[in-house]
Amino acid sequence: MRKKIYIAYTGGTIGMRPSTRGYVPAPGFLSETLAGMPEFNRPEMPEFTINEYANLIDSSDMSPNDWQQMADDIAEHYDDYDGFIILHGTDTMAYTSSALSFMLQGLSKPVIVTGSQIPLAELRSDGQENLLNALYIAANYPIPEVTLFFNNKLMRGNRARKLDANGFDAFESPNYPILIDAGIDIKVTNQHRKVDTNAQLVIKNIQAQPIGLVSLYPGISADVIKNTLLQPVKALILLSYGVGNAPQSAALLEQLKRARDSQVVVLNCTQCTHGKVDMHGYANGQTLLDVGVVSGADMTPEAALAKLHYLLSQPLSYDDIRAHLQANISGELSI
Ligand SMILES: NC(=O)C[C@H](N)C(=O)O
Predict the structure, then answer these.
(1) Which of 57, 60, 90 has most ligand 1 atoms within 8 Å of CB, for mutation?
(2) In 118, 127, 211, 264, which residue has its Cα 20 to 30 A from 12's Cα atom?
(3) Where does residue 198 rank: exposed (0-12), middle (13-18), buried (19+ CB within 10 A)?
(4) Residue 324, Cβ neighbours under 10 Å: how many?
(5) What is the tens place of the pLDDT at every residue in 276-294?
(6) Domains detected in the chain
(7) Pocket-testing residue among 9, 13, 17, ligand 1, by greatest number of atoms within 8 A of Cβ
(8) Which active-site residues does the annotation give?
């Protein structure tokens, strides 16, 4: 029997059409375009249903409320389908796939987020290949995780990053092996979660949380951190240098101490694309540990932000949040 896949269409370039102000999402346009592509209805392909969202958006408009809408949508249709695809813009796709990896716990079915760099209706679009492969993989190589499919690679959703604004190979998984390499042969790399048929889906709700994010740069003033902490925020992500280093500025460290004293979690992620934070390596890193900064290890900034939204939405103490940040919840960090 053909598998049944549910497609939640949220917007993004894949379904856009040109306007006088650049590409915009257009209601009905994606389904209309797909109807003219017979390969989607070949007998090897699964059956699919498309739920086009009422408000199709460029993914730069995504917010945690939209993540919640997607999680609820999947929960509502979970028992009726064999797998789920989320069609999404590429700009914030890695944030959404990270957030959903924390929100959808106990998955026994695949959830694949995908989209394209050129609209499906245009010549040379990558949308057809991305969606066709995502559907085929959801039906035939079901991995019970939130994943991101792009340019023949299936990646863990909370490990993926958009690293190329213009190319078709826009996403990478810098700190974790890809899960499926969909070349001439489809190679499953065995780095994924295994199906547990007894797993029960549990939705963890997220409410938008006030989170600050500061990228360090030579000459940064402590006032930048001070002003970010005034917003107010419940957590601050510090994008530090290398293995987690920051300037030894007394004024800057004072601000981080004040954050700790007012129970604002400070999470240290590296500006480097590859590798992980280890604040024990240098004295400059050690001073951050001394003022209570938590290591983000090899988490991507996207996963770190989503994880903070997720943890701050739970009834957890400051110490609990610090502990959970350093623990592996959904495969987002290597310990
Ligand atoms: N390629 C894309 O989908 C980019 C678009 N701006 C979006 O994220 O919705």
Answers:
(1) 90
(2) 211
(3) exposed
(4) 17
(5) 999 999 999 999 999 999 9
(6) 4-203 (3.40.50.1170), 211-325 (3.40.50.40)
(7) 13
(8) 13, 90
